[in-house]
Amino acid sequence: QTTKKTNNLKRSKLDIMTSVEEDSTDDGDEEVVKLCCKDDYATDIFHTLKEFRDSFLLTDLNLSTEDGRSLHVHSPVLAAVSSLIQEIVGLSTWSLSLGSEVTSTALQLQYQPALSLCLQFLQQEINPDSCLDVASFAEAYEMVQLLEVADDFVLRQFQKVACTSKFKDLPANHLLKYLNSHSLCVPSELVVFKAVVAWILAKPKIRLQLAKELMKAVHFPLMTFKEFKEVQRLNMWSDHSLVELYEAIFEDFCSSETALQDQCRIYLPKENLVLIGGDQISEDMASRNISKELWFGNSLRNHTGVKKAVEWRKLGEMPEPARFCHEVAVLKGQLYVFGGKKYYGINDMLDSAYRYDPHENSWERLADMQEKRSSFSVVVLDGKIYAIGGLCDPEYTDSVERYCPAANSWSFTCPLDLPLSGHVAKVLQGQIFVSGGLNSDYSCLPSMFLYHPETGSTYLENMSQPRAHHCMEALGDCLYAAGGITTDTNNTVIDQLACEVYDPAADSWTAFTCLKVPHVGAGSVVMEGKFYVLGGYSQEDYSDTTMDRNRFILLAAVTSFEHWRELKVQTKSSEGGK
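^ Kelch-like family member 33, sequence as received from the core. Prediction below:
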């Protein structure tokens, strides 16, 4: 409640829901009573709080005006709707411990609105220091969904969680559950070993007897010699009761190379890599084959040292025809496939669109695009899908069209400044960024610009080198460009191995580690903080970037981008996406 229409009390902006003007007071000033609240607060709560205020119940703050009036108010109520008041009274945001207390109270009172808000808060504020407390709280109150979120955080951020003091208080059965999970994400077995040792040494008299069982969760044969030397240097082995365990661990580490081939730590990511269609060159380099198959990365596998692998399984096939140079998008958990080419002739361009539902394992034919396109780019923004530029035989096109899933229809938006093909568009911070590509003269471009469906293009800082048919992905607050083709000083088209990152805040490009092999026309994706590049070919001899026949190279860069890491490929047929 605020009183007096004169500016006696400076206030921050509040949403005025209702206002009632009362008769003038004795001093001649008109008194205005207004109920101020945010839209997401229930009005009846404020009516109740008004009754509390009028009776001075639980009021904890006295506001004084210049003319000597005073208002007895509830500081949390004012702080809830005004950041200015929040700063003045020194109220801070909830801590996680307070969040747990309020959640417990909401549970006891069975007040669903407050409970939903508390659960949302606990999930949003979870971090390495709090995740184990959240998991314990969720388990105690049988909150299945919250427990899944907390456990998942522990598993995906295990290395950081294992360094916290609360990790050492983890019950043994909970620790074993995490160590044996296929969702445990660790860069090496040494991380797992150090976590186990830290937990044991926190209470050695009690926990040394559990060492044998816990060490079974560590895959010692996957360690390098350098890593195992750290294991050997541990003072814990001086305990006579652990001599037999150390000998068993040493024997396990020294197991034969043949036995090692099948040993790995299997990691099941939260999201799956899916490979759709494309073309491949035959083994004798005499012909190319177009595919309509879908493959998905079922698991990531850590082998000895830095050796990694991906297990690919066949998911199924897309409807006819098989296609390449097409585009894909994901919206609301469903996969969209657009355009491309069905063969290598001039009349083989496609305008068809399909949607795949992974839960039903079914395909749905959608409305065709208004133009046939290949070597174009697709982005998802605000629930709509945009098809940008591309090759529309026989010319490149500058047109952009927008697909509305609700209406199953396409409509043209503002065109590009020039026809483009082989460019890449990505969404970052709610904006569409477009890099590189080929113009109508078949020249590679170094350009980078923002595209707005209503106002068109706004040009930004150029890349250091021109590129087309490359990859670009949004990761963190930046955009990373890799691979593709470029032109040399003689205007000859060559493979582009250089990579660079764009910082929108500084409008600048910075180089990072070059690719080891060419990746022209490759696929790419960001998954769990890593930039993956899949397949492609070499402009020099048009050979596929493959390990062997019907296999795909997959490269992953760590977020620090100190190096690219090659992941070997294992394939296994699997019908129905299982």
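The chain has 15 helices and 32 strands.
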